[in-house]
Write a structure and sequence with these properties.
Elements (H helix, E strand, L loop, with lengths): L4 E5 L3 H13 L4 E5 L3 H13 L9 E4 L10 E4 L16 H17 L5 E4 L4 H12 L6 E3 L3 H15 L6 E2 L2 E2 L7 E2 L5 E2 L2 E2 L7
Parallel strand pairs: 1-2, 1-4, 2-3, 4-5, 5-6
Antiparallel strand pairs: 7-10, 8-9, 10-11
Helix pairs in contact: 3-4
Length: about 200
């Protein structure tokens, strides 16, 4: 059986949660973690190894460098600095994250990496496009999480307001993960029923 290997770049709040989620869901066989801060990297690796007791199967967790990503099936880019987004404008992070991508993507590609890249770093759409352009990978191998998080937030709010389980609500945020996104209200369904024909609360 083919082993599934994933690399996570950047072990801040988001990157550490991504790594933990991958282990607990049992959807990877190997996890390579990369972070510029050696102490942070070592502590996150140890924490995830300790969490193995609660995982559905054994996951090999290792610290690595860009050179160790060549045989990864997927790389998740989480490199960023959330403190730069104090105004809640994700574009404030752009100068930092663009420079980060340009500093490392050539090293990733030099490792022989030919897999998929999933970008979480802000501004999400800008950085996803930059990763595609700088990596030279086919455009169907570089993805941004886009408004996925915003969609889950919308569904969560609708669930709280209506008292209906989030599993019975279908709704979408569309556009750019930032100030220009919007809720597609005409697509909202609760229990399969369009929102527009539901009785008033």
């Amino acid at each position: 059986m083919k082993r599934r290997k994933v690399g996570v770049l950047g072990l801040g709040h988001v990157g550490a949660h991504v790594a933990y989620s991958l282990i607990i869901q049992g959807i990877v066989s190997e996890l390579v973690l990369v972070d510029a801060k050696e102490g942070k990297l070592a502590s996150e690796v140890q924490d995830l190894r300790d969490a193995q007791m609660y995982a559905p199967h054994k996951v090999e967790v290792t610290p690595g460098t860009y050179a160790d990503l060549g045989d990864c099936d997927i790389i998740v880019n989480c490199i960023g600095d959330i403190t730069l987004c104090a105004s809640n404008n994700r574009l404030d992070e752009m100068n930092y994250t663009v420079a980060q991508v340009k500093s490392y993507i050539s090293k990733v590609m030099a490792s022989g990496f030919k897999g998929y890249i999933v970008n979480i770093t802000n501004p999400c759409d800008v950085i996803a496009h930059l990763l595609w352009k700088e990596s030279g990978l086919p455009k169907n191998q570089v993805f941004g999480t886009g408004t996925g998080l915003d969609t889950s937030r919308l569904v969560s709010k609708l669930s709280l307001q209506t008292g209906v389980s989030h599993q019975s609500i279908s709704a979408y945020m569309i556009g750019e993960h930032g100030a220009s996104q919007m809720a597609a209200w005409s697509c909202v369904r609760v229990g399969g029923v369009p929102k527009s024909i539901l009785p008033k609360q």
